[in-house]
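ingest -> validate -> predict -> emit
validate: passed (alphabet ok, no gaps, 115 aa)
predict: started
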Amino acid sequence: MGKENIETNSNNEMKIQTLLIPIDFSHIIPHGYANGYIGLPKEHPWFNKHYDNIDVDIHGGLTYSNDHPPKGEPDGLWWTGFDTAHCYDNQVNCDETYCRNEVESLKQQALNVVK
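emit:
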């Protein structure tokens, strides 16, 4: 399974990229369908912030922040996101639709910060 760019959105020229990475089903531990990330431009207030310092309402809280997407190369964006490998996460309560909705919610919360 590979990475899937969902879309790039803009709000007053602020572009935030979303990324959904399906989890390799060969893992033994329980997990949801995918992990979700957003790529933020330098102009965004969350740029260069550690995920513990970003206040959002997202599944399990943010668990990632870096200058590159997971398993990717630096691309000028600041990537932050969540995973679905928490206790009680599984393919039923964290299915594809749920993961897509969560990454869209994260993107919307990021856009709301710059409104």
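The mean pLDDT is 85.
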